[in-house]
Each structure stands twice: as C-alpha cells, then as structure tokens.
Write a structure and sequence with these properties.
two-stranded parallel sheet; 34% helix; Aspartate Aminotransferase, domain 2; single chain; 9 helices; 7-stranded mixed sheet; binds pyridoxal-5'-phosphate; 360 residues; 2 domains; 15% strand; Aspartate Aminotransferase, domain 1; alpha/beta
C-alpha cells in the first residue's frame, strides 16, 4: 500500500524525509556500527544529537539565553503536575482560562498543590471559542497564568496571548509548537509533547525561564524537578534517546522549510484552503468562532451522523485517514500539522467538493 494522507490528531504524520533519513541510518548511524537506539546516552554520538537538537530548536524558536530547553518524559500530561510542583512558590495560586479538556486536566492536577482560579471557561459552548477576559480580573499575585495555545480537540487557538505582566504565562503548545512564530519571552514556560509536530510520543519539550527553576516543593519527586534536569542537561537518567534523534531530524526539516516563519506561511495557506471551502459549503460547517480558528486542527460537521460516517468511509477509500472527530465531540477533524503537505489538503478539499455534490 502507498502512504496515505494521515490526518490523525496525534501521534501524527512525520515528514517523509525524516522517516527516510531515519530508515537509512537505522542499523548503522553515521559509521558507528549501531543504531541510535542501541547507543549509550553518554556516548559522543548521542551527545552531539542532543546538543544539536537543542541548538536547532533555540534557533527555530529564537529562544532567549535566559531560558532552558529540556527533553523530558511522561508526555504533556506529566507537565500538568510538574508545573504546579515547581512553580507554586509564593501565593500558591494560579489563574487558568479553560479552553478544552487538556486545560481542565491541567487545572485538576494543579488543584492538588494550590489554588486554581478559573477566570473563564468556554465549556458551556463545547469549547467553541476562546473566552475574552479583561486584565482587571487577572490575579496580580498568581504564581503563574495557564493557557493552552491550541486546542487540539475543538480546533481553536489563541490569536492574542493574555498580557500577564509580571505573572509568568505558561503555555501548553503540544499541538502547535513550531507551527507559527511566538515571542518566547512572553512566556515563563512552554511545553509540548512531541507526537503532534515534532516526532514520536515519548519525549516532551519544556522551555523554561531561569528564574522559575529551583523552587520545587519539598515533596517533588526528583524526576519531576526542573532543577535536576537542567543541572544534568536532560541526562539525569536515560532520556528517550531515539525520540530526541527524530526530533533533531524534524528540526532540521523545519529549518529547510524556511524555519518557523516559512512553515507558518504554508500552514496559513493550507488552513485557508480548507476554511474557505467549508465557509462556502452548504453541507459542511465549522463549529468554531471564526476569530479563534486553529491552523492545526480543523473541525467540521454535516449535522447528520450518518453522512459523517459515510464521509469518513469514502475518504478512507481515497487514502485520507483518521478524519474522525475526537470521541468526545464526533463529526470530523482534519489535523494538518507541519508535516501534512499542501497536496494532502488540496486532495481533501477536492474530495469534500465531490462528496457535497453527491450528497446534497
Ligand atoms: C495531546 C495533547 C496533550 C497530551 O499529551 P500526552 O503526551 O498524551 O500526555 C496535552 N495537551 C494538548 C494541547 C495536547 O494536544
């Protein structure tokens, strides 16, 4: 079978070039006589891989000097605990804007260690928009302010970040890291599980400002302490070595696409192609507030679960897979991360047009 266009929300498509390089280097990495999988994490070869991965990411995201980059395990979900354990240091209070089930989970974990102040939530409207919250309601003494920059399940994203002043902004960027430019200095901490825009699941990137490191609560497990991982250059224990290697290959690929700036233009083009068609369609509808639309996860519905089902079956026959919406919301969702080529979106739109004609 040929490769398909895989619209999965995660783990998701990787650039073919990355997979081919990994395949070519699989059994004998650069003359070492072994696979990266078989290599000591203390070897010179692996040290080069992790050093280059960090330096590529720093370049791509223009990460300032006073931020550390960590390669951790435990997925995005472990950060839901790690963040409060490390960042609650004074008031032990955090502001949250709840824009989806990932934010809800993060808030539930934070609540075990301190006070969670939910400024707003769009849950009553199935998280179809990003709530606008006036600055006056922010807690000036909060230890951090938490948002999810892109909501994978519902297809929304922040266009304008909250201006939190001296309160560190924490961003879950799991599903849109490297998809658009961000000013890292607006954040105290950014994290992202790798399996959407970077590589295989199993490595989590954390970008954290220096002054937020070193204040972990006493009961913090060693493995959950940012200080331990920064002091050891992400090599306190065996890191997910192969995943870091694939991440490095993806970072090189992003650089070749013109960096995040180049990728962002392409992502805008891909997303407009799909949104413009959906807006002109009488069969498909995008249920999200226009001004909050995600570039990465595009949801659409027909209003009939039978037609949705037919759509998914026929799309699959055409080599376009994993277009079903999240199990909690149904309908359809096209996840068009960095690695999804323009041709994949063009093919999807052509298919949707044809499907609309046949199913009016
Ligand atoms: C996928 C995802 C997560 C969860 O990541 P895990 O690595 O499975 O723990 C968290 N937040 C967002 C926004 C996600 O898209």
């Amino acid at each position: 079978m040929e490769r398909v266009y895989n619209f999965s929300a995660g783990p998701s498509m990787l650039p073919l070039e990355v997979l081919e390089t990994a395949a070519a280097e699989m059994t004998n990495y650069k003359g070492s006589g072994m696979s990266v999988m078989e290599m000591s994490h203390r070897s010179k070869e692996f040290e080069d891989i992790i050093t280059q991965a960090e330096s590529l990411l720093r370049d791509l995201m223009h990460i300032p000097e006073n931020y550390k980059v960590l390669f951790l395990q435990g997925g995005g979900s472990s950060q839901f605990s790690m963040i409060p354990l490390n960042l609650f240091k004074n008031s032990k209070k955090a502001d949250f804007i709840v824009t989806g089930s990932w934010t809800k989970k993060a808030a539930a974990e934070a609540k075990r260690y301190g006070e969670v102040n939910v400024l707003a939530s769009s849950e009553a409207d199935v998280f179809s928009y990003i709530p606008k919250v006036s600055k006056e309601s922010y807690s000036p003494d909060a230890d951090y302010f938490y948002i999810t920059t892109n909501n994978t399940i519902y297809g929304t994203r922040y266009i304008n970040l909250p201006e939190t002043g001296n309160v560190p902004l924490v961003g879950d960027m799991s599903s849109n890291i490297l998809s658009q430019t961000y000013d890292v200095s607006k954040f105290g901490l950014i994290f992202a599980g790798a399996q959407k825009n970077i590589g295989p699941s199993g490595v989590t990137i954390v970008i954290v400002r220096d002054d937020l490191i070193g204040h972990a609560a006493d009961l913090t497990p060693t493995m959950f302490n940012y200080k331990i991982h920064t002091e050891n250059g992400s090599l306190y224990n065996t890191p997910p070595t192969y995943n870091i290697y694939i991440a490095k290959l993806t970072f090189e690929w992003v650089k070749k696409q013109g960096g995040v700036e180049g990728i962002e233009k392409m992502n805008e083009k891909k997303a407009s192609l799909l949104y413009d068609y959906i807006d002109s369609s009488t069969l498909f509808k995008n249920p999200v507030a226009k001004e909050d639309r995600s570039l990465m996860n595009i949801t659409f519905v027909t209003g009939s679960s039978e037609i949705d089902k037919k759509f998914l079956t026929e799309a699959k026959q055409q080599g376009m897979v994993n277009l079903g919406g999240h199990r909690s919301v149904g309908g359809m969702r096209a996840s068009i991360y960095n690695a999804m080529p323009l041709e994949g979106v063009e093919k999807l739109v052509e298919f949707m047009k044809k499907f609309e004609m046949e199913n009016k």
